[in-house]
Specification:
This protein has one domain. The protein is built from one helix and no strands. The radius of gyration is 20 Å and the shape is rod-shaped. The N and C termini lie far apart (about 65 Å).
């Protein structure tokens, strides 16, 4: 059996990885939304 500390460590490290992925995804999503707004503005100016 794994010790409680090991399981806690695995859980914590897994959570931080998930949080990092989530923040990266949100940042990417936010940036792509800004890019589409810029693209629409550029289309309107034509």
């Amino acid at each position: 059996m794994y010790s409680d500390y090991y399981l806690l460590y695995r859980f914590m490290s897994g959570s931080t990885i998930l949080l990092a992925d989530l923040s990266r995804f949100r940042r990417f999503h936010f940036n792509s939304a800004k890019d589409t707004k810029k693209a629409k503005l550029a289309e309107n100016k034509k």
